[in-house]
Amino acid sequence: MSYPLRQGAIMKSLSRRRFATLLAAFAGLPAAARCAETGARKIAPVSPVRRSDDPVVSTFLRAITDEETIAIYYHGGTNPGALRRFRPISIYRVEDGAAIYAHGYCQLRGEPRTLRLDKIRLA
Question: Which Pfam families does the entry link to (predicted)?
Fold first, then answer.
């Protein structure tokens, strides 16, 4: 299921420059190309997460609102437990009741990444 992009709603909360940056990030995601090459399962967002009692999710939501980069330890990927600086763009679930994911820019890798929030510890 896909949701139409409502530019008016997004533009009210974001500056034009930030909106252009986000749009460019989504348009050229290298992760999508890697999924096609490797046959990996593609993650398609189903429902956005807007609030949570979980401290990690709450921190990510606040970082999105304030356009901040946060320090985290990610216990997944090729370098488990590595300290990363991550600037989240969106938080969503793939299915109702399933794991929560964050999409954003990882300074360690220098490119957009999707991280599973239950594998994150705040620094």
Answer: WYL
